[in-house]
Structure formats: C-alpha cells, structure tokens
Design a protein that fits this description.
The complex is a heterodimer. By secondary structure, chain A is α/β, with parallel strands linked by helices. Chain A has twelve helices and twelve strands. In chain B, strand 4 and strand 5 form a beta hairpin. The chains are: A alpha/beta, B alpha/beta. The interface between A and B is large, with 50 and 47 residues. The complex binds adenosine-5'-diphosphate (2 copies), iron/sulfur cluster (SF4) and magnesium ion (2 copies).
C-alpha cells in the first residue's frame, strides 16, 4: 500500500494531463487444481503494475514474451477481468465523432475506475479507448469487407445511419493512407501493412482519445514497419491521441515513446522518460535487454559489451522469492533472495525496482569511446 | 597470393515455382561464392528468396518448385547433378541447415539425448557409450544446465532458446564445412537471441565452419558476418564486406532498408525514412530494375534496362545503374 501512496503523491502535480492511471494492477489465471478438492494453482501474469498515460503522449510497455504486456492491456479495457487494482480513465464528454482537431477537454473529465464501472460507464469508456492488435484481421470472419470491418465499432455502438457510416469509412481509409475504393474488398489478400492500416482505421472509427497498440508493427518487414510507425505518429499529432504502446523491440520503443516501463515476469522493473531510460538504464535487466539488442552497424557491434543472461525465464506459476529477476541477475546478492525490491524513485522521475541499481548503464547502448 | 578456391560457388541459380497463376520466379539468376570458414549474411525482406536459396543448395526444393537453371558447386562438385542418394551423404555431414523452428529438426517423441547419440552413431560410427559421452559434452558446450539430467528430457521440456541451441549442437556434431542458418533467432526473444548468436559465433570460430546466416534483421548480421549480400525480389542487388556495405551502401534499396530501421543508439524521434509501396509480384516482376517502382532515383533507363547483376566475381558489387552515385546528405536536403 505504501508504495502506491508514494506514486500517487509524486504524480499529483502533473495530475491534470493524465488520461489513464493504472495502480497496482494484478491478474492471476487459474491454471489447474490438484485433485478434486486440492489447492488451486495460479499463474501470476500481472503482479502489481502502476503507470500513467498522459494526454497526447506515448507510454510504452516493453519486455520479452510472456512478461504480461498483453494481459495488462486486456485488463485495462476489461476484455478480461483484473484480479485487483485500479484502472482510472478519463472519458472526455462529447468528443465529436469526426473532424476533431482541437485538443480534447479530456483532462477536465472525472476519473472513472473501470474495474468498478457499471456496464453503461464501461461502454462509454470503450468508445474512447480502443485497441489495435498485431494482426487485427486474423480473428475476423474472412467474408467481411473492409467496409464491414472498419464500421463495426460504429454499428456496435449504434452510431449513425448506414449512409453516415459509409462516409465515415471513406474518411477513415483516407486518414490511414488507403484508397477509399478498398471499402468493398476483402482484406484476405492484403499485405501485412495494409491489414494493419485497416486495424488502425477500425480502432479510430469512434474517434477515441486513447489507443492501445499491442505489438502493432512486430509482424511487419522493416520498410513497412517504418510506414506504419510514421502513420501512427501522424495520427497522434493530428488527432491528439494518447498511446499505450506495447512492443518487445527496444529500438522501436525508443523511437516512439515519451515514457517507458520495462516489464519482467509481470512486474515493472524500471520506469522513466525515454531520455532517462536510454541515457542511464539502472536495472540490471534493462541493461541486459539493451545490451542484447543488435545495432545495424558492424563497427559498433564489434565494440559493444553484451551481457549474456544465464538460465531461463522462471515460471510465473512458481515465482522466485525476493526479486523476480534474481535467478538470472548478474549482480545478485543474498538480500535479493530474501527481500522483494519495491519500485522506488531512484532519480527524479526514474523508478527502479532493484536493491542494487547499476549506475554504469550508459555503455549498454553505445560502447564507451 | 592466389585466393582459396571457393567452398561454395553458385552460378546463375534460378528456382521457380509453377503455380496456377504463373511461374513464381523466387530465385532468379543469383551468383555468389563463399570461401572456407567465411561468415556470409544474406538479408532481405520476406519473400525476397532467401529461404528458397537455402533450400536450393540443400536440394530440398519440392514440386511445384524446381531449380530451372544454374550451378551449385560445393568443393568443385555440382550439387545439382548428384542423385538423391549422393545428396543425402552431403546433407547433414558436409552442409547442415537449421531453421527458425527448431522442431523441424527435433523429433518430439524421442529424448534429446537419444537424438544426439543416434546422429553420432549413424554419421560418426561411435559406440553407444562414446556417443553418450560426446552428446553430454555437446549439451554442456551449448550451455544447457545439468546436461546429464537434461539428456533424458524430451524437446518440449526445453525452452525455445535451449531447443535452438540443441539443434545447433546437433548440426555441428558431424563437423560440416558449411552451416546454413535460416532465421535461427527470429522466433526468439532478444536475450535468447543474444545467447544463440554468441554460441554460434564461438562454435563457428573454434571449428572454422563457414556460416551462411539468413535473416531479415540487419542488426544480427552486423555483429556476426564478414560479408553481406542483400536480396530483393529474387535477385542479389548488392554485396560487400559488412563494414563497407553498412557504412556506404550503394544501392538505394540497401540504403533505404538501413535508414528505415529504428536504431537503439539513435534517440531521435523524427519521421523514419520509409521505402514506399510493397515488394513486387514475383510472377511478373517489373522490367528493367526490379526496384524502380519504389526507388526515389529511378530514371527512364531504370524502367527499360535491367542493371548488370551481381555476378559474384568481385567482393563489392551493386546491381544499380547509378550505384553509389547518391550522396546521403545532399539527397536528403534535396528531397
Ligand atoms: N488465458 C490465460 N490463461 C493462463 N495463462 C495465461 C493466459 N493469458 C496469458 N497467460 C500467461 O500470462 C503470462 C503473460 O502473458 P502475456 O500477457 O500474453 O505476455 P506478453 O504479452 O508480454 O507476451 C504468460 O505466462 C502467459 O502464458
Ligand atoms: N512452395 C511454394 N509455392 C509457391 N511459391 C513459393 C513457394 N515457396 C516459396 N515461394 C515463393 O518464393 C518467393 C521467395 O520465398 P522465400 O525464399 O521463402 O522468401 P524469404 O525466405 O526471403 O522470406 C516468395 O514469393 C514465395 O511466395
Ligand atoms: S534486486 Fe538483486 S537480483 Fe534483482 S535485479 Fe537487483 S541486483 Fe539483480
Ligand atoms: Mg503479447
Ligand atoms: Mg524465409
């Protein structure tokens, strides 16, 4: 509880521009029961996660597969039920559907805790907070046309006449750089980049203020990845969007983020602004992660110091005692086994969960001369 | 000083797939060579023909595909003229291949130990006991913790990164002269990727194995390969020593690729350079230069005339009419 209060106080002065505030979010999945009446076994996918997304900015969750990024995103939108924690969201009132370029009045709206929200409030919130997946079309009925896919959120929320929706789809396709004539086509044969553009158009149909992007460019070739990242940037500027960006590629994250939270085994181990995180990563895991990302430059690669982590990711069913990272940590000490570190503000605005934060991290990205 | 005769020499290789909609010219006249112990990177975006190149060398192209032209000489012998029986002797023993999915090489119903010992007994004629000792040593070599215990485990009991390390160990058991690694780390997380690449580098160095590393990741190649060739639409469009190719790419596509990747060591958040459009159809690729519809520098000549292909004769080559005649700084300012 105490760490939560600290976080709340620290963020108070900049409260007004927060659109999404997540506090101590946890999600446990029931894995199996031993015998008929035996003890239940749980997998702790998200183990107490706190962060703020600020208006018009991008907060990224980064970490390796299985660390709980997607589960966090799904809990935020209550696509799955969180086990505990708060998800405070400001739904701007009366954000017009189309053509809105003015900054929203979102910051003046009251926070609603989505974990407690009734269905009407939740519905309203979901108009304003949308999600884009890695392959947004894969899970859809292959017989749907682009028109049907993009207008689906409008239909679901009973927005507009048929004619209005058709017009809105045209507008959205243009917005994401697709030909309006694509509306009547089936996206099956579309390239990865085009499919992702359709996913983005669909997410923007209701003119949301917050967009959650879950690995939106991970499946794309680099030339197409660049196109989509540029598009996301344009849309953010044009529509004043706030992004919760999820990715495993640290280089992409550095390029798009205002602030970054690094996750390991369901927890945030480090959180800082883009400049601080890459300028001086403090957590041994962040450092190892950064050192492992290859840089497309042979001269630099030959000189870099790479931290090769030993061992494998522990199971989220049987989490290590003390620090979650201690089984692979290169600087582990006895205290790490006994005592769980808390996310603490090591430097102004730079939060780390480690008993022994490392101050030599600046060489992880570029070799020291 | 006469250069070593090449270990592998590929001449004008063409591999097509005959489909209902036409011939897919997946690999369309590529030439290159590799010397003993060389580490060559083959990069390009998906569909550019990297895996088909590898499968052609291994004799693994299946209908509707076939090698329709060219030569693949390995130690002077044209692999395309060998019978399947003769090819089987080369595969695994002289040239080994590993894929993105390690389960392609592992049998889920046998323990990892029995698969390693089997390989050793068949290919190296070892006794059961010898094979067991070597297999356990090998697991230790690829940093599998408690190898004696893990020897008895099945593939599904290993993590993805460990499985790929086991497969590398298995591929190297017979000391092949050439290892083809087709996207070996693409399915892995970045820390496992670092483990695997570190291991490959160490093993290849120790044994002098030549490695053809196929990947879409320009970063992975930068840390591993001496030479790099870039594929686009079934052709090799540029080749060179890694240092030169990255520092001074001469083909607009290579340059575009390098500039469109966000870099870990770059803190700018300005727009990324992006290559417009998408890769062309391989059934009816553009005439002239295959890249012209996406190229910022295309002229009439590019539309009508095919640039001279890379022929594998010199270490640095570029298949562009205006190779290297672009200046990064001034062009950028001009665009
Ligand atoms: N429905 C589920 N039931 C049980 N475990 C799950 C479920 N969804 C996710 N998990 C587990 O939760 C952990 C976090 O998964 P996820 O949030 O998908 O990670 P990420 O998106 O970071 O790759 C993983 O161990 C995963 O196996
Ligand atoms: N079995 C097949 N049938 C038809 N086309 C194929 C087949 N295998 C590969 N291709 C085509 O060959 C081209 C090159 O494929 P590939 O070598 O796998 O690309 P890469 O490995 O560079 O991603 C692609 O256009 C692909 O669609
Ligand atoms: S708390 Fe200990 S084990 Fe955990 S990251 Fe810090 S030093 Fe490593
Ligand atoms: Mg995920
Ligand atoms: Mg491939």
């Amino acid at each position: 509880m105490s760490s939560q209060e600290v976080v709340l106080t620290a963020a108070k002065d900049s409260d007004s521009d927060v659109v999404l505030r997540v506090r101590d979010l946890t999600k446990r999945f029931l894995v199996k029961r031993r015998g008929i009446s035996g003890p239940a076994q749980y997998l702790q996918a998200v183990a107490g996660v706190s962060f703020d997304v600020k208006e018009g900015q991008t907060l990224s969750l980064v970490g390796e597969s299985g660390c709980g990024k997607s589960t966090t995103a799904r809990c935020v939108l209550r696509l799955i039920e969180p086990t505990s924690g708060q998800v405070l969201f400001r739904s701007p009132q009366g954000r017009p559907l189309a053509g809105d370029t003015s900054p929203s009045n979102q910051s003046k709206a009251p926070f609603i805790d989505l974990t407690q929200a009734e269905s009407r409030e939740l519905r309203e919130a979901r108009r304003n907070a949308q999600i884009v997946f890695q392959d947004p079309i894969a899970s859809l009925n292959p017989r749907m046309t682009v028109q049907a896919i993009v207008s689906e959120p409008l239909v679901a929320h009973g927005v507009g006449s048929r004619a209005f929706r058709a017009e809105r789809v045209q507008e959205l396709l243009q917005l994401v750089g697709l030909k309006p004539s694509y509306a009547t086509r089936h996206p099956r044969s579309f390239s990865g980049g085009q499919r992702q553009r359709i996913g983005i158009a669909r997410a923007l149909a209701l003119n949301p203020s917050l967009v959650i992007l879950d690995e939106p460019v991970s499946a794309l070739d680099v030339s197409v990845q660049a196109q989509v990242l540029n598009l996301l940037d344009d849309l953010q500027q044009k529509l004043g969007l706030s992004y919760l960006f999820i990715a495993h590629d640290l280089a992409v994250v550095r390029h798009v983020s205002t602030e970054i939270a690094v996750m390991y085994l369901g927890k945030i181990v480090e959180r800082a602004t883009q400049a601080d995180l890459f300028g001086s990563p403090l957590h041994p895991y962040t450092q190892a992660l950064m050192s492992a990302v290859p840089i497309p430059d042979p001269v630099i690669e030959l000189k870099r110091r790479r931290i090769i982590l030993s061992g494998e990711l522990p199971s989220a069913i049987r989490r290590p005692t003390g620090c979650s990272f201690r089984t692979r940590c290169p600087v582990v000490q006895e205290r790490c086994v006994q005592e769980e570190p808390q996310l603490e503000e090591q430097l102004p605005g730079h939060w780390v969960s480690c008993h022994f934060p490392q101050l030599d991290g600046s060489t992880m990205v570029t070799p020291s001369a | 000083m006469t250069p070593d005769p090449p270990l592998l020499d590929v001449r004008d290789l063409r591999t097509y797939f005959l489909t209902d909609s036409g011939d897919v010219r997946a690999v369309d006249g590529i030439s290159f060579s590799m010397s003993k112990g060389e580490r060559l990177g083959v990069v390009g975006e998906s569909g550019s023909g990297k895996s088909v190149t590898a499968a052609s060398i291994m004799g693994l192209i299946e209908p509707p595909g076939s090698v329709v032209g060219g030569q693949i000489r390995f130690r002077g012998q044209d692999l395309l003229r060998l019978s399947e029986r003769e090819m089987q002797k080369i595969r695994g023993r002289e040239i080994a291949i590993i894929f993105q999915d390690p389960m392609t090489a592992l049998d889920p119903v046998f323990t990892v130990g029995s698969q390693l010992t089997e390989t050793l007994r068949i290919h190296r004629g070892m006794s059961r006991q010898e094979a067991r000792t070597v297999a356990i040593d090998t697991l230790a070599d690829v940093h599998i913790p408690s190898p004696e215990k893990r020897f008895k485990d099945y593939p599904h009991q290993f993590s993805g990164g460990m499985r790929q390390r086991v497969v590398i160990a298995m591929a190297l058991l017979c000391d092949p002269a050439l290892l083809i690694a087709d996207e070996p780390t693409t399915a892995l997380d970045v820390t496992s990727q670092a483990q695997v690449m570190d291991l490959m580098l160490g093993l290849a160095d120790d044994r002098g194995t030549a490695v053809m590393l196929i990947t879409h990741d320009l970063g992975v190649v930068a840390g591993f390969c001496e030479n790099v060739q870039v594929m686009y639409a079934g052709e090799i469009i540029e080749r060179g020593p890694a240092g030169q190719l990255y520092a001074n790419p001469e083909h607009p596509y290579t340059r575009g690729l390098l500039e469109s990747v966000p870099r870990l060591d770059d803190d700018s958040q300005t727009k990324l350079y992006s290559i417009r459009g998408v890769a062309p159809s391989m059934i009816q690729p553009p005439r002239g230069c295959r890249f012209w519809p996406r190229c910022d520098y295309a002229t009439d000549k590019c539309v009508s005339e095919r640039p001279r292909s890379c022929c594998g004769d010199s270490p640095k080559e570029c298949a562009c009419h205006f190779a290297g005649q672009f200046n990064l700084e001034t062009d950028r300012a001009g665009v």
